[in-house]
Amino acid sequence: MKFYNVGKIVNTHGVRGEVRVLATTDFVDERFAAGNTLYLQGKEQPQALEIEKARQHKGFILVKFVGYDNINDVQHFRNLELMVSDQDQQPLEEGQYYYHQIIGLTVKTVDGRELGTIKEILSPGANDVWVVDRPGQKDLLLPVIDDVVKDVDLAKGLVEVELLEGLE
């Protein structure tokens, strides 16, 4: 079974077993709903945790897990990742992709010139930015907009782009 990160526990909150989570998912309400199971990153096997309740608080999600009722129970969760299994991933609409589907794809221009491989995705604001690792050159930052990204073919592992003036 594969697991994908949906947040990181950055600290505890109060003394009743809540943790402060920095969410890294677009599906916050669905992922952190009461009764859902998340998996805590473990040294060997991820640990399943059932959500008792969750709420938004100052840019974070405060999460309480079933059976973890005081700060001592959750203290050691700090700085660990929360994940969902691949079976728990929601199907996406046409033209939308999970980060793990994009990272590692080869990037070519519409005229067939290979640019490199996507190594990271940044989310600075209005649109994501794909960081393309180019051998022997500086990384290329590609804004994920229709004018630049022309085609994404997951089956072929290929992204076709049109470089606007000033991108390269």
Descriptive overview:
This protein has 168 residues and is mostly beta strands. It has 2 domains: 3-88, Beta Barrel (Elongation Factor Tu (Ef-tu), domain 3); 99-161, PRC-barrel domain (SH3 type barrels). It is built from 3 helices and 12 strands. The protein has a 6-stranded antiparallel barrel with strand order 1-2-5-4-3-6. A 6-stranded mixed sheet has the order 10-9-8-7-12-11, with no helix packed on it. Strand 3 and strand 4 form a beta hairpin. The longest helix is centred in the N-terminal third of the chain and has 4 residues, at 28-31. The chain starts with a strand and ends in a 7-residue tail after the last strand.
Number of continuous helical runs: 3
CATH evolutionary superfamily of the largest domain: RimM
The value of Rg in angstroms is 19 Å
Q: Identify the CATH class of the largest domain.
A: Mainly Beta
**Sheet with the most strands?**
6 strands, antiparallel, barrel
Question: Tags for this entry?
Answer:
single chain, 168 residues, Elongation Factor Tu (Ef-tu), domain 3, 2 domains, six-stranded mixed sheet, 3 helices, 7% helix, 44% strand, elongated
Helix/strand layout:
Layout lengths: L2 E11 L4 E6 L4 H4 L5 E4 L6 E11 L2 E6 L5 H4 L6 E5 L13 H4 L3 E4 L4 E9 L6 E5 L6 E4 L5 E5 L4 E4 L7
Parallel strand pairs: 7-12
Antiparallel strand pairs: 1-2, 1-6, 2-5, 3-4, 3-6, 4-5, 7-8, 8-9, 9-10, 11-12
Quick recap:
This protein is 7% helix and 44% strand. The chain is mostly beta strands and 168 residues long. The mean pLDDT is 91.
